[in-house]
Amino acid sequence: MTEHHHEHGWTRLGTEIAHEGPHLTVHRDRVVQPHGAEGTYEHVEMADGARIVMVDGRRRVAFVEDAFYPLGARLLHVPGGAIGKGEDPLDAARRECEEETGWCPRELRHLTAFHPLPSRTAAVVHLYLAMDLFRGTVRRDPTEAGMTLRWLPFEEAVDAVRSGEISEAASVIGVLLAERALTP
User: Fold this and answer.
1) What pLDDT shows up at residue 5?
2) In angstroms, what CA-CA distances link 145 with 54, 64, 114?
3) According to the 3-state scheme, what is the secondary structure of 68-102?
4) In angstroms, rounded to a whole number, what is the distance separating the alpha carbons of residues 14 and 174?
5) Strand pairing category for 80-82 and 49-54
6) Which residues contact 55 (CB under 8 A, 6 or more apart)?
7) N or C: which end of the chain has fewer CB within 10 A?
8) How far apart are CA 83 and CA 46, in angstroms?
9) 83: how many CB neighbours lie within 10 A of its CB?
10) What dihedral angle (degrees, nearest 10) is formed by the CA atoms of 125, 184, 158, 107?
11) How many Å apart are CA 105 and CA 45, to the nearest integer?
12) Does domain 49-182 have CATH number 3.90.79.10?
């Protein structure tokens, strides 16, 4: 690969794929750092995500609890998942709501898009607020077999974020932005 200059001060001299799997690709680039030293930089290519703060008519927030292998623990978090190749983020959000919770939103409002780990991946997570929910069908994939649905009153959800009980990034950002969006 030829030398590749970036306006942010880094120069990529070459790249190799260190690992390619079904969910992510690890790249190892030879780079010139902004201060001039040569080195290597590893980064991960993965799908963008869609995550949803679902609020029902009783002002309860839908959370799913699932086991996260790297943490060796179960975490409460807002529903969501990877956006498929060529899939619209809004469609992915709608699909993930139903698949993981069995509820579908009539209203989806974009809250923000954020970079969950910018030092390691360019992947973006799109956050939505979902309201006016109606019944659908749960369709969890095999890795989500142990997933459970839990509804928390909105103020409890905010308190759980503030206390650190809910610590997953999209859930923290989503609940706090939804609080602002839903405050008259």
Assistant:
1) 53
2) 21, 12, 28
3) ECCCCEEEEECCEEECCCCCCHHHHHHHHHHHHHC
4) 37
5) antiparallel
6) 61, 62, 129, 130, 131, 154, 178, 182
7) C
8) 10
9) 23
10) -40
11) 30
12) yes
pLDDT at 7 over 70: no
CA 181 to chain centre: 19
pTM of the model: 0.89
CA distance linking residue 77 with residue 74, whole number of Å = 10
Phi first, then psi, for residue 50 (nearest 5°) are: -125, 130
3-state SS of the chain is CCCEECCCCCEEEEEEEEEECCCEEEEEEEEECCCCCEEEEEEEEECCEEEEEEECCCCEEEEEEEEECCCCEEEEECCEEECCCCCCHHHHHHHHHHHHHCEEEEEEEEEEEECCCCCCECCCEEEEEEEEEEECCCCCCHHHCCCEEEEEEHHHHHHHHHHCCCCCHHHHHHHHHHHHHHCC
d(CA 133, CA 41): 44
* Alpha carbon distance 117, 114 (integer Å): 9
pLDDT in tens, 27-49: 999 999 998 999 999 999 999 99
Task: Give the list of residues 6+ apart from residue 134 with CB closer than 8 angstroms, or none.
Answer: 103, 104, 106
For residue 129, what are its two tokens?
């607020």
DSSP β-bridge partners for residue 40: 30
